[in-house]
TrEMBL record:
The keyword Transmembrane applies. Keywords: Membrane, Transmembrane, Transmembrane helix. This is Phage abortive infection protein. The lineage of its organism: Bacteria, Pseudomonadati, Bacteroidota, Flavobacteriia, Flavobacteriales. The chain crosses the membrane at residues 22-43. It comes from Kordia antarctica. It comes from the Bacteria.
């Protein structure tokens, strides 16, 4: 009996220890469970809210990018055709610069096919850019896809190459006189004249309305009137820089038949001479951080030296 009692006491002690351990485990587990439930109770709404905000932001970016792509797609074909026509005219002018077909001595009301088509194609191109930009006005273009953002950057560069006097940095050019550049804030007024009911008027209508349009676009005629290689002015240099960007634009976004090969770029160089303001052009390109700026510099500018 003594042995049994002793054994019983031993087992009782073991059971007591096991009970204490179990209770401790249960308490610890319960405390952890309660702590987890409290944590989930407080954190879940915050996590859900952050995830919801994240979803909204991603949906917003996606919708903005989609709308931007749709707008650019709506005008892209017409814009590329306009760029091609202008590029074709600039190539033709390069070959026939010595013919002085742009010289009309201020007689802008009379129809002169060569300068009329030059002015029309020039303004037509910028008018299409305006149609795109006007439709993008209320969208957040920072959410554009890479290729669309690249095109938007080109839009800004085109305007700068025509209006920015920094292109002639280091020269004696008078920035207060609109002779070899076009004032940026006034430039938009000139190509807006070609837009009627959100469409670009045809060349035939442009000719028919030229008398009334001259009042608004005369500075563009003056910019091209008599342009030649031997004059002591910089407007041809500005046009050559613009042509470089236009070639790059068509090479990047255009159809394969709109591409200008290196050999043709070099021919243009021989026809019109090297770029006198290459450094100014490179500054403008760098300013807008074009992803293809290295290719643009190597293919177009460096081979136009």
């Amino acid at each position: 009996m003594v042995v049994i009692e002793i054994a019983g006491v031993s087992w009782m002690k073991k059971l007591e220890k096991m009970s204490d351990s179990l209770i401790t485990t249960l308490i610890a587990g319960g405390t952890g469970l309660i702590s987890s439930l409290i944590t989930i109770y407080w954190l879940k709404p915050k996590i859900d809210r952050k995830f919801h905000i994240f979803q909204l932001e991603e949906n917003y970016k996606h919708e903005q990018a989609k709308k931007i792509k749709e707008i650019i797609g709506q005008y892209k074909s017409q814009l590329l055709n306009s760029a091609e026509h202008l590029h074709s005219r600039l190539k033709n002018y390069s070959k026939n610069c010595s013919e002085n077909w742009l010289e009309v001595n201020g007689d802008y009301h009379t129809n002169h096919y060569y300068i009329d088509t030059m002015v029309y194609r020039f303004l037509n191109f910028f008018a299409y850019i305006k149609l795109v930009e006007d439709n993008l006005e209320y969208l957040d273009t920072t959410n554009s896809e890479n290729d669309d953002m690249e095109m938007i950057r080109y839009f800004r560069i085109f305007a700068d190459v025509i209006s920015d006097v920094d292109l002639f940095k280091g020269s004696d050019y008078d920035a207060n006189n609109q002779s070899d550049h076009i004032f940026r804030n006034r430039f938009e007024q000139y190509y807006e004249c070609l837009i009627q009911e959100k469409k670009i008027i045809s060349f035939n209508l442009f000719e028919d309305r030229k008398d009334e349009l001259i009042e608004y676009i005369q500075p563009i005629y003056m910019f091209f009137d008599g342009m030649n290689k031997t004059e002591p002015r910089y407007r041809l240099e500005r046009l050559k820089c613009f042509h470089c960007i236009l070639i790059s634009f068509l090479n990047h976004f255009g159809y394969d038949f709109q591409e200008t090969k290196l050999t043709k770029v070099q021919k243009l160089k021989k026809l019109l001479g090297p770029l006198k303001f290459e450094s100014g052009l490179k500054i403008i390109i760098k300013k807008y951080k074009l992803k293809g700026s290295k290719q643009l510099t190597e293919l177009v500018i460096d081979n136009y030296k």
